[in-house]
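Q:
My hope is that you can spare some time for a protein that puzzles me. I hope you can help me see how the letters and the tokens relate. Thank you; the sequence and its tokens follow:
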Amino acid sequence: MRRYNKNTDEDDIRQRPNRKGNRPRTNIRPKHEEAVEGMVLTVDRGRLTCLVDDRIVMAMKARELGRKAAVVGDRVAIVGDLSGEKDTLARIVRIEPRTSVLRRTADDDDPFERVVVANADQLAIVTALADPEPRPRLIDRCLVAAFDGGLTPLLVLTKSDLAPPDKFLELYGALDIPYVVTSREELQSEAAADLVREQLVGRITAFVGHSGVGKTTLVNALVPPEQRRTTGHVNAVTGRGRHTTTSALALPLAGKEGGWLVDTPGVRSFGLNHVDPSRVIHAFPDLEPGTEGCPRACSHDEPECALDQWVADGHADPQRLYSLRRLLATRERHEGD
């Protein structure tokens, strides 16, 4: 057997030949200084539609990104053919840090979270006041996901001609969430669009809602005509709508003011397995200082919780504490309960 001395730089050490003729693997990744920034508009079976300046560019994820996936709203670095011409394909080599993330799981027992939208400023939760009936628990879950992900919530209530909004709004009054109320007649006209558009200008807004609430109809009133999507109807037997939006898509807000909205598929459940309850308190700045006296890992709904005394001392409205605990409790309840 051949023996080598302590000098590991001998010139006669044999190297295993590379039979495939390709380059040896390395942990050093290219920096891609020449990469251009783009925004992901939609994702479809491994192909990502991106906006680069004013051009639509088709791209795929570079192998060096591994399992890291880009989602709608991501700011990405792209190299390759950026002409946007037919049959061209660029390559996404970097995903920039995200400012916010809207995430969900399939259900509360699912350990795998799914990122729905990245870098959105606010979450518009669209719900009908009737036909179909509103689902407060689903709305609560969306609010928790918004607070957890760093998005500002916005309630958009449709079909006010079928039911008054007052009782429903009382449930969320203590949360000070901005809201817009529209009727079916307004939903088919520019009136609803104008009311909602005021809340969207200059922002990236993700739209969520279960099927049949008029989400896609509203989105179509807010975007340029050539960007409009197919709408469905509510089933008279089940009271549910048919999913007409099958993938998330970022669309420009019509008008010169600027802004983007992201239409997402209709949801029937919103799992919160990924949410750390300790982060939800950040959305309640009037209550957060009162948690300093809480025991470690406090659920904020137990006898030792310091928030009860904080509210009793007059530092916050009791309804605010009730709202916080109601939202936190949604993580422990299934939507069908």
